[in-house]
Amino acid sequence: MKKFAIPFLFAACLFLASCSNDDEPKAPVNAITLNMMNSDNGKTTIGGSDVYINSSNNFVSSQCGIVDLGRKGSLTANPSLSQIAQEVAVTPGNYYQIVLARDVQIIAGERAFPINTNYYCVRVDSWLYDADSEISGAKVRYAECFPTISIEVLPEWDTLFPAYLNYNDGMQVANDTHTFAKGVKIDPNYEVYDFNQYTHSSLYNNLKIKIQDNKITFSNPVYSKGDKVEVITYVRYGSLYTRVHFIVS
Hints:
The protein is an all-beta fold. It has two domains: 32-145, no CATH class; 159-248, Sandwich (Immunoglobulin-like), CATH 2.60.40. Helices cover 2% and strands 43% of the residues. It has one helix and 21 strands. Strands 8, 9, 12, 16, 17, 20 and 21 form a seven-stranded mixed sheet that branches. It has a six-stranded antiparallel sheet with strand order 1-11-10-7-4-5, with no helix packed on it. Strands 2-3-6 form a three-stranded antiparallel sheet, with no helix packed on it. Strand 18 and strand 19 form a beta hairpin. It is elongated, with a radius of gyration of 24 Å. The relative contact order is 0.18.
């Protein structure tokens, strides 16, 4: 489910920052330097994206979300989505992030970005000027990044977890609770699929699911031995999220 392949169809966005050579931070090995001309001087875009610098010297996109991180960002930072827009001022010395807007989802009440999708970190190094000393664009550096987070915090995309509802003589004797890492939030919107191909099983019809912060509990008030369902939901930690599957039997 990578939305940004390497020529990055919506590879949006580079941004400009100015600094002296002594202040320039080290860039990752995959960083690219680009002279990005504004819309009055050729309208340079990144890859196949629509991101450009307009005549007001702002970064603009109709398909990407752009985040201005100020001077405290980096070319390797995880996505920060608290202040995201489709037009932001170009400021030399500042860091930016660009994500495909449709990848940003509301998960457990907050904006989040999928852990299996790439995005761009950008730094504006300096303005570019024409022969009349007017701003013609900006020199930027950018790097393609993937989110980094421990699998102990957020499992890999589409990880499968078993959930067992135990029975004894036709009676349920236990629920099954799965607890994620502290700080993880489980989205309350989940989907349930029945493994029975012909009609909904007793487990599908009677399964109870309770979500509380980082815990999800499955229970079934009736005897449904042999039935099996799949529950798909999303879990978020900070600004990142993943999709998980529970096979309940």
